Amino acid sequence: GTGGGATGGAMGGGTGGGASSSDGGIVTRVFWSSLTFTGDFLTGSGATDGFTGADTSCQQLADVRLLDGTWVAFLGGGTTRATDRLVGNGPWVRLDGGTVFANKAAVGLAISVGTATSDLGTEPVSNFFWSGTQSSGAPAVSSCTSWTSSSLSKSGTYGTVTPSGFAWNSTTDVCSGWHRVLCFEQAVLQADGGIRRSPRPAGPARRMFVSSLAFNGDLKTGGGTSDGLTGGDALCNQLATARSFGGTWKAYLATTAARAIDRLTSQGPWVSLDGGTLFSNRSGLLLGLNTGELTLDTGAVTAGNIFWTGLTAAGQPSGVACGSWLSSSASQSGTYGTANGTTLAWDTATDVCSTPHRLLCVED
């Protein structure tokens, strides 16, 4: 699936999940996603079906926020009942510890004793999330072809979270619509008896900047190399050398066939030029959920600066990449993102390849 952009600080993880409840069960957590998704959770997820693709989205968000634990999406459809995908019998609690659902039966009927926050800790107003679930907890007929479709001609059932609780089947929307997902922690322990830990790379920290110079979409010619991606890398390294940064740098760019993050070998963390943490791990970088201010190579804080990406909001190839960064033609286009202080977006819009835009340069 492809997620809508969002930013926010990482939350401390590991304190809320994995504890024992008074009845001997494992106290697990629930949140609704700060990102939105179409009904296609399969594409770009690396999963084998839409349900597990949605689980991947929940796990990535949990890892970005360093929440620890194993997480799945509350989704039904076809013969799949959403509650049957949950391991454990609850209770499920807010990220700050207040009870939301007493047990699995309560989840099935949307009987809550509290409401949930987003992965950012935001309280709900009236936030929609894909559910594929009827009010009885049974699978809904409309489920975007088992959560593999973003078609205008297909539909999916969505629910609502409000300050007073939940509804599983508010109505349906076309699968090209963008909605959130409800994420439940699983009562699963690791071999050592503890819950799964979110990745916390030990470093060394790698740096990141937005280029002060802008380039058209023909990065091969601009960088004087054999292809567009290495041309972008060369331009980043030239700027880093001019600023005496040291290190080896890559342009954070996707082609139609390759994700930008797969060009990097580092596991993170990534920091700004002044040392402030931007991304704690690869999940954060993939989704563009930064926790600090991006700067230019000059040290100036970004202020609505546009840079080429070739990405969707969820860090997947957009398929619009100036012919793999070989074209400066006004008849071809590339996807660009925007950096504005602590706000980051991978897929602001597209522009013709003859227009110069900046690069996001990542140390690797």
The profile of the biggest β sheet is:
9 strands, mixed
Q: Radius of gyration from the CA trace?
A: 21 Å
Q: Give me the secondary-structure category.
A: alpha+beta
- The percent of residues in helical segments reads 10-25%
Q: Which term fits the overall shape?
A: globular
How many strand units? 17
Mean pLDDT: 92
Strand content: 15-25%
From the N-terminal CA to the C-terminal CA, the straight-line distance is 27 Å
**Tally of individual helices:** 7
Strand and helix order: EEHEEEHEHEEEEHHEEEHEHEEE
Descriptive account of the structure:
By secondary structure, the chain is α+β, with helices and mostly antiparallel strands. The chain is 15% helix and 23% strand. The strands form three sheets. Strands 1, 2, 3, 4, 5, 6, 7, 8 and 9 form a nine-stranded mixed β-sheet that branches. A five-stranded mixed β-sheet has the order 11-17-10-12-13. The longest helix has 15 residues, at 50-64. The chain is globular and about 60 Å long.
Give descriptors for this structure:
364 residues; alpha+beta
Task: Give a short synopsis of this structure.
Helices cover 15% and strands 23% of the residues. By secondary structure, it is α+β, with helices and mostly antiparallel strands.
